[in-house]
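In this notebook, the sequence line spells out the residues, with the fold written below as integer tokens. This is how one looks.
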Amino acid sequence: MAKKPKEKLEQFAFMVTRSVGSIGSVIVHSILFLGAFVSVWSGFVAFESMLLFLTTIVSLEAIYLSIFIQMTINYQAEDIDEIQEDIDEIQEDVDEIQEDVDEIQEDVDEIQEDVEEMTEEEKEEEALHAGQAKTLEEIQTGLKKLITDIERLQNK
């Protein structure tokens, strides 16, 4: 897919901005400045002409560099805005998840209460069954005693 002119210019701006902030750029500029002063010392160019030319070139370079740097900053600002929007969306999702977790915790608490109530009911049932079993045992003992007494009376 062919790039739009704006995209090409942005890519060029990023390339220039990256290259200007490198050691290679310092070396190239140092060699060019040294060459300008050597050309004056050698007598190839008049000092005033060299300063005029060098000042013009450096001024143009500064103008274009500031434009490219500002383009890079603007592009990064757009990225930061997009990242901030993503962060806001993630925060909303985290808030929703926290609400879900709170609801689940409430459900767990209710279930725990139900389990505790069931345990209490089971204990009450066990106590009731124990009481009924004791009563049945007492009735059986009483009946056995009564049968024994009736048999004794019949044998007399």
